[in-house]
Amino acid sequence: xxxxxxxxxxxxxxxNLQALIDAENSGIIKSGELSLVVSNNSDAYALxxxxxxxxKSVVISKKQYKEKFEYEIISTLEENGIDFxxxxxxxxxxxxxxxxxxxxxxxNVHPSLIPSFCGKGFYGLHVHEAALEYGVKVTGATVHFVNxxxxxxxIIMQKAVSIMEGDTPEILQKxxxxxxxxxxxxxALEKVCFELISNKGD
Length: 202
Fold this sequence. Notes:
By secondary structure, the chain is of the alpha/beta class. The protein has helices spanning 15-25, 46-52, 62-65, 69-79, 96-101, 125-134, 169-201; strands spanning 4-10, 32-39, 56-59, 84-87, 106-110, 138-145, 155-162.
């Protein structure tokens, strides 16, 4: 069976990467193959997860490549024949030049129900702090295509998560990851990879 070759871009612990590895191992992801992990941070624990899973990994730091940073990532992805890209806690905003080069072939998971608490400045714990501050009763996660607008691409999948009495940003972050992000990211990746290889066959 033909599979779409997937690269995962990471910056930190790689919990979403782990969710994808587990989903591939359990057969949830059938149409895609995790082929490459790219990190902008040589200390990212995600690199250890990749090594343990036998996935090739590369470090491309902004500090080292400066204005050639995105060019280096594009070259690496193309050299490895990558069909699809997942941003899994990748802490760099990608330019329009990059996103249009891989139009409809980059997805991201965001820890809120877009269009709430998204866009510039809304990442990590900031998202959950904002949700609690606003007093919403339901939050969640969204998987969406990536374009030049932060969190502005077409929505693929969403899952709601209830906010509980006494939640802190940290507790809420953990619940959103466990109940939403780790569930919908693999499902969304399978969906888009399936569509990509089906279209290739046409």
